[in-house]
Amino acid sequence: MLSTLTSKSQITLPKEVRVLLQLEPGDKVAFLPLADGQITVAKANKASFAMLRGILPRPPQAHTVEAMNQAVSDAVAQRQHAGA
Predict the structure, then answer these.
(1) pTM of the model
(2) Counted domains in the chain
(3) Is residue 66 part of a domain?
């Protein structure tokens, strides 16, 4: 089965694929990359991980190694002080 990419980067899924995946208008389709460089097409589950990705905001900035080391040092010092 073949499909042609339009100038708007769109494709029409062949009828055989739509029937096999039980797709209806409005359904989401997931394109899943495989290790060998191929792509698998699947009907997306409503709660699939791929659809949930990005739902939580990213932290404003990444923590540096120095900041993490300081946090560990502070926690150790606090425990030692509490146990004294």
Answers:
(1) 0.50
(2) 1
(3) no
